[in-house]
Amino acid sequence: MKRVATWAMYGIGAISIAYIALYVYAMLSAPRLEPGDPIRIFRKPDAPSYSALTLRV
User: Fold this and answer.
1) Residue 39: what are its φ and ψ, rounded to 5°?
2) Helix segments in the chain, DSSP class H
3) What b-and-e string marks burial along 24-47, b requiring 16 or more CB atoms within 10 Å of the CB?
């Protein structure tokens, strides 16, 4: 049972190290945002408009 617990701790440690490495990569590769920069939201031109209120009876 001790051997299983030891390997479980190794597994949890490896997952946590991978998570931290992924977080560091995401923080270093993210685009730099400056106050006043426009927010770019990409939308397909032919996407339906869900904000239009239409009642069908």
Assistant:
1) -90, 125
2) 2-29
3) eeeeeeeeeeeeeeeeeeeeeeee
Tokens 């997952």 sit on residue: 15
Instruction: Specify the amino acid at residue 49.
Output: S
C-alpha to C-alpha distance for 32 and 9, rounded to whole angstroms? 36
Rg (CA), the chain: 23
pLDDT in tens, the chain (57 residues): 899 999 999 999 999 999 999 999 999 998 887 888 887 777 788 877 777 666 665
**Would the pTM of this model clear 0.90, i.e. be above it?**
no
